[in-house]
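Job type: complex structure
Entries:
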Amino acid sequence: MKRLVVLAGLLAALVLPAAASAHPLGNFTVNRFARVQVSGHTLYVRYVLDMAEIPTYQARQQGVGAGVYALRIARGLRLTVDDAPARLVPVRRTLAFPAGAAGLHTLRLEVVLRGPEVTGSTRVTVDDRNEPDRLGWREVVVGAHAPSVSDELRAYPKSLLSSPLRVTRASAVLRPTSDPPPPLTRGPALRAPDRVADSGFATLIARRDLSGLVLLGSLAAALFWGAAHALSPGHGKTIVTAYLVGQRGTPRHAALLGLIVTATHTVGVFALGLVTLALSQFVVPDRLYPWLNLTAGALVVSVGLAVLRQRVAEWRHDRAHRTGLHLHVHGHVHDHTDFSRRGLLAVGISGGLLPCPSALVVLLAAISLHRLAFGLVLILAFSVGLAAAITGVGLLAVLAKRTFARRSFEGPLVRALPVASALVILVFGLVMSAHALPELA
Amino acid sequence: MRTRLALVGVAALAAALALLFGGAFEHEAAARGGDVLPPAIAEQLQRGFAAGATAALVAGLQGELRVQPSAKAYGTLGLAYEQRARETGDATFYGRAERALRRALALHPNDLNALAGLGQLALARHQFRHALTLGRAARRVSPTTAGVYGIVGDAQLELGRYRQAFTAFDRMATLKPSVASYARVSYARELLGDVRGAEQAMALAVSAAAGQREAAAWTRTQLGLLLLSSGRPAAAEREAQRALLVFPGYHLALDALAQAEAAQGRLATALRHERAAVARIPLPQYVGFLGDLERATGHPARARGQYELIRVIERLLAANGVRNDLDIALFDVDHGIRLRHALELARRGYRERPSIVGDDVLGWALARNGRCGEALPYARRALRLGTRDAVKEFHRGYVEACLGHRAAARTWYRRALALNPHFSILWAPVARKGALR
């Protein structure tokens, strides 16, 4: 029963790798970043708010919406254009709750604010008066390409010989440019890479020297992390076990299952990576996760239902045999193997469908580091490790079942086992779906 | 209780602060770094602090260290970071302070600044035995530096070794009369029940702090809390206002002001000021008092929200490795939450911190769990130094009443109320009722 609880948190698998570290600037800081830029003829401010655990909890407790925060930010930003005060209007925003310390969340809000039109050379001054007393990092930069010390509140400098930044004002002469309007961060990058990227697997991609030995070592490490990841909650170990036990699986089935999981996971990561890169204007990958969860859940439910139906039919069939009422008809044996393949495919896909976030981080980092090939190989190795672990678990189940079955032929327990395993699959599928549903809202 | 704890519990407060901010540490009572330093650097720091130019000093040291790293510069930088943390309330500086001090120690294993600075950090982390070791090591390096006696004494105090602690404070004050030593003398007198003497010593600390913004505000606030704990909220309010005058937005002063206003029945303004303190730094005791104020002004839902926030803060503290069992136990017992669990916490906290604070909290937890026979020895021990503290006296009365000692209970309740009729929003009314029985 405890396993059920653990597995129920399929979402937890997404959160866990990130939950390791606290907010880098302390649990009570509210950190702010503003970038002033002119895109075309319009003045924009890209504003980032990064709250640590306690303010995030308070904000959620008070139930203030992101829209209200965006308006407050706009009000607190004093903008003057050629010495005349000007208004800022929030036009777009995005919100995420990256995991923080002690199972709590932090908050990252990004808002794009639109200011007035700019025709010629214009003196622009911005003064961030939002919560001047709150502790935290404060940074204001001017220009679309101006560097940010904190990488827009993603990576705070940890050097001993630097102090937290406290810049709340900037002034510069700006003129129209051909820059596009400021973007919003999308997807897992919003989930504070500073914290997510600390997981063991994700650090592999950033290795500086890539000699042959390091390469091999990295691959081995990726395999290991994949296997370790498979053994963390989620990823359908229980479902695989239940399925193989219930379906009288053979070692060949277990191996096939591993192959399917690897393929699905690799393809899934690449697909989600592509979506993140190419379609981020239209789809937020974060929004995809619950859908993927739901799909996996539905797949598992359908497998469970099919297995259950078949088991019940077989059980009736058996009883009919024993009571002598059975009339031999139709080739249901053929039916059986056919179904088995479909079921195997469904179970495998449900196990690999959910791309592991650190695999995604690796892919995105590989792209930004121009190490695409290395990244792809790493992810493949990761998927293989994942599949190997799942196959191992499956094999174990198959062998255990055989030993078990050899001892007590056709005992009532063995006969009940397939039905029970079908029920287990069904329940897990339902729980997975139920957990995905509230996330869709 | 809060009032009295404010001084004792500076360590607790500091720890909370430290934790909250992710691995930072502070010990306010032990905090006047200037005393630990060799005179030249001390002067340099003092001048910098006095002018409110610690930031510039830090920048100068950072530049110097980039060119030529030295134990001395790292040690000074560590202490300057601790001062920056006190000025800004930004605990990021504590983490930096620790790393700077450790580097100084690596370069020079007997660096006085580094030993003393790390001793202060250990105090804030409630590692009192470790702090004592560090303080003694610093004392061996320089037996004539006043500041090292502060660290040794503070640690002994929390370990319940009062006689040794007072000796250390005496030595400190003889070596160098300063804000730090006067504040400790004041605290020692307070523990011994000499309320007026404590005020006089703190007044000396106030004048010694003249010209140093944070130190001036801190001493004023402490004086205010002393006045409040002996039932003079109007005078306490004035001191808190003065502290805020030298240091606008100072969280300790805002909290003291709110307490003083609440004691005078001005709950609405108290609420406003406590909110401001929480907005500045959400220390558990501020959030708890804010919750009590919300409850007292008829907003039970908001009060619950604050109490839940405390749980969250405590989870964070625990995740950061901080043991503040006694503080959690006191809060839970006061608010009637998970009483049996609170007793366990109190027992654990007592083992770490066998001081009169430990005696008081453990006794109070036992009493509220209905085990008044066991509670009585602890309630007695909590007052063994002759401390005048309305909260501890009330706890003693509560235990006596629970054991059916009506006359004794009445006496203790009256004593507590005579000292400070507003010692607690929650429990003063109980004492008033009991005193009439």
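Summary: Chain B touches chain A through 37 residues (CB under 8 Å). Confidence is low (pLDDT under 50) at residues 1-44, 46-51 of chain B.
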